[in-house]
Design goal:
The protein is α+β, with helices and mostly antiparallel strands and 580 residues long. The chain is 24% helix and 31% strand. It is built from eleven helices and 26 strands. The strands form six sheets. Strands 1-2-3-5-4-6-9-7-8 form a nine-stranded mixed beta sheet, sandwiched between helices. A hairpin with a 2-residue loop joins strand 18 and strand 19. The longest helix is centred in the middle third of the chain and has 20 residues, at 373-392.
Length: 580
């Protein structure tokens, strides 16, 4: 795992190398991305924009057979390395991206030519090749009042153990034909419907060499002042089999199967737009799909931004200041540590192929698939539902949170006050909301009989179709006892309970600073019950809430003590529980 982590550090550092000559190859698409177009030009004969029509339509029309056909075709290109052949019509990244582009054209013809294919081209030398292309299909929004776009993405490039190997087989089925297929299927299905926001279905390249395709779009968005509402990244999203190794937090052991859970990775904890996006996705699934799908999925909001020592194309978007998250399957076959001679899993090797083969005399036939098309379809529907509701939902509000007395919080909406209803999300020790309440009007005293705890509160606007906006800024309220209710901590500095707690691999430890003080060194000391220090994490003490992520590793259980130390003095200690 150490080798993987060291690789990840270099992985992120090279992803920040600036791409040059980034441009959209279609001038109409370039204008649409900026919101500079007449929506009437792209209106369908019949506007289908009612929430039930969209999410039920997506659920009914996403096809596991279509997904499987895309994956088989992508595997047929043999090697889709970012630097592989661009001339051949049958092998290499060039043939693969032209095929995706042609499919986008086909989907557009079937939907009144409303879906506009284009390339995002950029220059950056990697593995000896300098010019690269993402493939996009852009569905223009029917209202340019809000010019922000929604991106559903997945990378198409594959790799072997050698990141620049363009010769050996690299079908890259789980990583990441599965994600690219999901994006393609949603382009096909979702382009039947209409959304207020423009939706971009993007298949990126250069992910394996350094998140280059994702970074290229971020650079382009900054250059052209393109507003981005949300990014849903899909990477390693179709497999259900656990390998001998996997990137934690992941599966329990070799051969384990899991086709009913999916992991949502996103950055931050308190007041983190990326984590709020993950909560929104889970809430929309519960409210729209849980009662209509044939097999319900469990959506797990993970603490870290990605698996231990790993990264994906959502990261450059987050670094650019946009709300972005990653969907990844519950189980993975491998942790990609190909430098380990004992590594026998498929990920990042030629073994990441369609499946297991059987020999029948002179013939070899595909016996079983490594991806599960039905599982991939369920994850596709979750993506489509979230993107659809983002595309038609109301504007994001803000509010003032005050503590009234020993029994209630007061919510006063201060931004986007035109709506008749709002939802209030409240959480304590987990990444997810403990409760979601509905309030009528813009002022309400709610949540009676609070027990002593720190509460994290955000709100969402609700439109006349009962669709929520993205969550607002998140605020904190500290209840210190039934007879004492106040904002913030009781003293100048307070060590808060870690979140989530209990947890499996990673947890956030927060320090609330009510009054800034002078200090030389501050850190969190983590010790086991025998008093042995297992980790020391430097922490800043700026005004407000300061967080550090403690990544303990997978397969550990027990109780630990964490303490805030300032200039060598113990300030406060708390317990946290590891539970697998």
């Amino acid at each position: 795992m150490k080798k993987v982590f060291l690789f990840f550090l270099s992985f992120i550092s090279i992803s920040l190398i600036a791409q040059t000559n980034v441009n959209c190859t279609d001038s109409n698409v370039a204008h649409i991305l900026k919101g500079n177009y007449n929506p009437a030009t792209y209106l369908p004969a019949t506007v289908l924009d009612f929430p039930d029509t969209i999410f039920k339509g997506v659920n009914a029309r996403v096809s596991s057979d279509s997904l499987k056909s895309y994956i088989f075709k992508m595997a047929s290109f043999y090697n889709r390395n970012t630097a592989s052949d661009t001339i051949s019509n049958t092998v290499g990244i060039g043939a693969a991206r032209r095929w995706v582009y042609s499919k986008f054209q086909q989907f557009s013809i079937a939907n009144q030519n409303r879906l506009l294919p284009s390339y995002l081209q950029f220059t950056l030398t990697t593995c000896g090749v300098s010019q690269h292309r993402n493939i996009m299909a852009v569905l223009p929004g029917i209202d340019t009042t809000d010019k922000s776009i929604i991106i559903i993405e997945g990378h198409i490039d594959s790799r072997c153990a050698n990141v620049c190997d363009t010769v050996n087989k690299a079908e890259g089925v789980e990583d990441n034909a599965s994600g690219a297929a999901l994006v393609m299927e949603l382009a096909r299905v979702m382009s039947k419907y209409s959304y207020h926001n423009t939706i971009v279905f993007m298949v990126t390249t250069g992910e394996e060499q350094g998140l280059y395709g994702g970074q290229a779009f971020v650079n382009y968005a900054k250059l052209k002042a393109i507003k981005i509402k949300a990014v849903l990244n899909n990477d390693v999203i179709g497999g259900i089999i656990c390998g001998y190794t996997s990137s934690a937090p992941s599966c329990p052991g070799y051969g384990n199967l899991d086709s009913t859970q999916v992991r949502l990775f996103s950055y931050g904890s308190f007041n983190a737009p990326c984590k709020s996006l993950s909560r929104f996705i889970k809430l929309e699934y519960k409210e729209n799909l849980a009662s209509v799908v044939s097999l319900p999925m469990q959506i797990n909001i993970m603490s870290p931004e990605d698996r231990t020592g790993r990264g994906g194309d959502h990261i450059p978007f987050r670094q650019g200041g946009y709300a972005a998250m990653r969907f990844t399957s519950a189980n993975e076959d491998g942790d990609a540590n190909v430098t380990d001679t004992a590594y026998h899993d498929r990920q990042h090797t030629t073994g990441d192929s369609l499946g297991a083969y059987k020999v029948h005399g002179p013939h070899t036939t595909l016996d079983s698939l490594f991806i599960n098309a039905n599982y991939l379809a369920r994850n596709t529907v979750i993506n489509g539902n979230a993107a659809g509701m983002l595309g038609i939902g109301p504007k994001q509000p803000d509010f003032l949170l005050t503590l009234v007395d020993t029994t209630s919080l007061r919510i006063q909406v201060t931004k986007q006050t035109q709506y008749k209803k709002y939802r209030i999300g409240i959480r304590t020790t987990t990444n997810d909301w403990d409760s979601v309440y509905t309030m009528s009007g813009t002022l309400v005293d709610t949540i009676k009989g609070l027990s002593a705890a720190t509460y994290y509160v955000s709100i969402m606007s609700v439109d006349t179709n009962n669709i929520e906006s993205l969550p607002s800024t998140e605020y904190t309220a500290k209840v210190t006892g039934i007879d004492e209710l106040k904002n913030g901590g009781e003293g100048n500095i307070e060590l808060l309970q870690n979140r989530p707690n209990p947890f499996d691999i990673s947890t956030y430890i927060s320090v609330q600073v009510n009054k800034v003080m002078s200090y030389k060194e501050a850190y969190i000391s983590i010790k086991d019950m025998q008093g042995k220090e297992v980790k020391r994490l430097p922490v800043k003490l700026n005004a407000g809430i300061n967080e550090v992520l403690f990544d303990h590793g997978y397969g550990v259980s027990g109780t630990y003590i964490y303490s805030l130390m300032i200039d060598g003095k113990l300030v406060q200690s708390r317990q946290m529980i590891f539970a697998n």
